[in-house]
Every structure is written in structure tokens, then in C-alpha cells.
Amino acid sequence: MEILKYLSVYLVSMVKFFGGPLAGVSLGLSFVETVLLTMAGMMTSVLVFSVVGRAFSKWLSKRRRAQHKPVFCKQNRRIVQVWNRFGVTGIAFLTPILFTPILGTIVVALFGVSRKHIFIHMFWSALFWSATLTFMVMEFGKVADKVF
User: Fold this and answer.
1) What pLDDT band is residue 45 in, cutting at 50, 70 and 90?
2) CA distances from 41 to 8, 45, 88, 89, 102 (A)
3) φ and ψ of 69, to 5 deg
4) 21 closest CA partner among 139, 143, 144
5) Mean pLDDT over the full length of the chain
6) What is the pLDDT of residues 117-128, one digit of tens each?
7) Cα→Cα distances 55→52, 60, 67, 77, 78, Å
């Protein structure tokens, strides 16, 4: 049964990073278990989508052109602004909280960042945010228990 808890946190973190700490704490996992599983989930997405990111972006571009959709929407403009100001560091920092691991990885792959740099930057970001968010969820849970 423990493996299902681990798998839940891992799989949720692959798609939506913030769900990992929420799932880990709600399932009663320890701080370290939750942080490691959340990081593993994000880094699995980073691995997969750094490999297929460029191919996916080409497919998406063709699809958007075929449907006559504009290249730049409000979200795309913001991503380019973050990239111009902060580069891969800014995108990596914002990926867990603003983007998803999938979208953040595709964005940095689109800008031509090497896989090595993608892994390094996404790793420190995953470590920082998984520890921070898990701590916040655990502490908020303790406060909520006292209040309610």
C-alpha cells in the first residue's frame, strides 16, 4: 500500500508540481519522502520533455500555423519577457510554481538550451520548490489543525 502513496506523489508531480507536496502531506508521508518524490516526478518530466521538446515545439508550430492562430498570445509574451530578463534561470525558477514541469522544459528547449543546462537548472529549482512547498503545506496543515 505504501508503494501506491509513493506512486501517487510521483505521478502528480510529473504533471502539476504543486500537487506533489499536497498529495505527500495528505497521504502522511514524511518531509524527506515528499520532497524526494516531488523532485523525482518533476525531473522525470524534464528528462522526457527535454528529449522530445524540440520535436513537440515544431509540431505545435505547424499546428498553430495550420489553424491560423497568432504566434504570440499574452502568455507567450510573458514567457519571452521572463526569458529576456532572466534566461534559463528565471524560467527554471518559475517552472514549478507558474508553469508545469512539462511546459517549463519545453520552453527552455525551444530557446535552444542544452540538455545539461536544462537538467542543472531544473534540478535546483525542483529541490528549492519541493522543500519550500512541502514545508509550507506541512506548517499550514499544523496551523489549520489548531484553528479548526
Assistant:
1) very high
2) 10, 7, 20, 20, 11
3) -90, 145
4) 139
5) 88
6) 999 999 999 999
7) 5, 9, 19, 21, 23
- Single-letter amino acid, residue 122: M
Q: CA-to-CA distance for 25 and 89, rounded, in angstroms?
A: 28
CA distance 66 to 56: 15
In the block, cell 512541502 appears at: 134
Report d(CA 123, CA 92) in Å as an integer.
9
Place of cell 534540478: 123
106: cell is 519545453
Residue 71 DSSP symbol: S
The phi and psi torsions of 99 (rounded to 5 degrees) equal -100, -175
Dump pLDDT digits (tens) for 90-105: 999 999 998 899 989 9
pLDDT digits (tens, 9 = 90+) for 20-41: 999 999 999 999 999 999 999 9
Amino acid found at 80? V
**Residue 136: all three cell numbers together:** 509550507
Torsions phi, psi of 59, nearest 5? -60, -45
The three three-digit cell numbers of residue 26, written as one number? 495528505
